[in-house]
Design brief:
The complex is a heterodimer of chains A (164) and B (103). With 164 residues, chain A is mainly alpha-helical. Helices cover 76% and strands 0% of the residues of chain A. Chain A is built from six helices and no strands. In chain A, helix 1 packs antiparallel against helix 2 (26-46) and helix 2 packs antiparallel against helix 3 (50-75). Chain B has three helices and no strands. Chain B is an all-alpha fold and 103 residues long. Chain B is 76% helix and 0% strand. In chain B, helix 1 runs antiparallel to helix 2 and helix 2 (29-54) packs antiparallel against helix 3. The chains are: A mainly alpha (164), B mainly alpha (103).
Chain lengths: 164, 103
């Protein structure tokens, strides 16, 4: 049952991630990204992280992607002009291949080997994560709140129309 | 077949690679920002996979922090894109070459 869910979600996630990259209109990219994020939330549930999964749906698929959709509607863009010189495309493809190779080597070479045997149970409920956030990670938590405040003030300042 | 940590690591690597390719290939600033979100999510998946492998819920807290940083990044990035579009009527990053030396 778990492996079936994993296979379904992983396949759907990869297809949606590729369509984020190849879709011509940004609106289609955004919609594909929403589906990919919901798939990731299901994977998080499989990883015994219900709190992070609910945050994924609320914050990512909810708030952030709505922000993206608003900006796409606001900009009212024409579809991408896809006609690019072939040489540039070739150079980009080479760059991509190099990036992929580097990524694969980094990820698979530097990761610590997972401990073998039966996976331990893990408490990913709101109660436990909340205790972690407000006890072990208190400084990080406060730093993140300052970062969010700065980001909000910065976004509002940047978004103001020049009144001159 | 049981799903092990390796499967999640491979999935995360693939997702990160797709996001990286998108950031390098696409010239639309909005789509580039979405691909950055994909890469952040690949990192989150890795955090949670290893949190389960080691039975340590600290990875969940870090994943939560990554989400908060992604929210801040999206807010500021989208505002910057809006500002660029307002002054230049384009968000194609190849057209934003105002600081480039003219040849």
């Amino acid at each position: 049952m778990e492996s079936l869910m994993f296979a379904l979600c992983a396949a759907s996630l990869l297809v949606m991630a590729v369509s984020v990259v190849v879709a011509k209109s940004p609106l289609r990219s955004a919609l594909a990204l929403i589906v990919a994020l919901v798939n990731l939330a299901v994977l998080f549930v499989l990883l015994q992280a219900p709190f992070v999964a609910s945050m994924q749906v609320l914050v990512y698929a909810g708030a952030i992607m709505v922000l993206f959709l608003f900006v796409i509607m606001l900009l009212n863009l024409r579809p991408d002009a896809q006609a690019r010189p072939t040489l540039a495309t070739l150079a980009q493809a080479c760059g991509c291949a190099a990036g992929l190779y580097l990524t694969g080597r980094l990820l698979l070479g530097c990761l610590p080997a997972a401990p073998p045997g039966h996976l331990p149970l893990i408490d990913g409920t709101v109660r436990h994560i909340g205790q972690l956030l407000l006890h072990d990670f208190l400084f990080h938590f406060e730093a993140i709140s300052m970062l969010l405040l700065t980001a909000v003030v910065g976004a509002v300042t940047l978004g103001l129309k020049r009144s001159a | 077949m049981t799903v092990g940590t390796d499967h999640y690591v491979a999935l995360s690597a693939l997702l990160f690679g797709i996001g990286l390719c998108g950031t390098l290939l696409r010239r639309n600033a909005l789509v580039m920002l979405m691909c950055i979100e994909l890469m952040l999510n690949a990192a989150n998946l890795l955090f949670l996979a290893y949190a389960r492998a080691y039975g340590d819920a600290g990875g969940h807290a870090v994943a939560f922090f990554v989400m908060a940083i992604a929210a801040a990044e999206a807010a500021v990035g989208l505002t910057l894109i809006l500002g660029v579009f307002r002054t230049r009527q384009t968000i194609d990053v190849d057209d934003l070459d105002g600081l480039r030396e003219s040849v």
